[in-house]
């Protein structure tokens, strides 16, 4: 984990989590969660953080599945 402090009014947060392989049966549930949390601009998280409260400018989420593991 790495944190940097700088003068300014902006902050960036990036998280990476190891997930399932492309063959795991729960990968479909993870894809659905990815859509809900930020895969597109109509996600619920994007709506709440940007349009309802004005707390964030950009919210994104993405998945990558590999033969033996994945990342979110």
Q: How would you summarize what this structure contains?
A:
The chain has 2 helices and 3 strands; from the N terminus they run E-H-H-E-E.
Helix-strand pattern: EHHEE
* Mean pLDDT, all residues: 80
Q: Percent helix among the residues?
A: 25-40%
Separate helix tally? 2
Which strands sit side by side, in order, in the main sheet?
Answer: 1-3-2
The fraction of residues assigned to DSSP E strands is 5-15%
Number of strands: 3
Shape by Cα distribution: flat
Strand-pairing-aware structural class: alpha+beta
Summarize the main sheet. Answer: 3 strands, antiparallel
Low-confidence stretches: none
Rg measurement, Å: 15 Å
Distance between the termini: 16 Å
Can you offer a commentary on this structure?
There is one protein chain. This protein has helices spanning 27-39, 44-52; strands at residues 18-19, 64-65, 70-71. It is an alpha+beta fold and 72 residues long. Strand 2 and strand 3 (70-71) form a beta hairpin. The chain is flat and about 45 Å long. The relative contact order is 0.24.
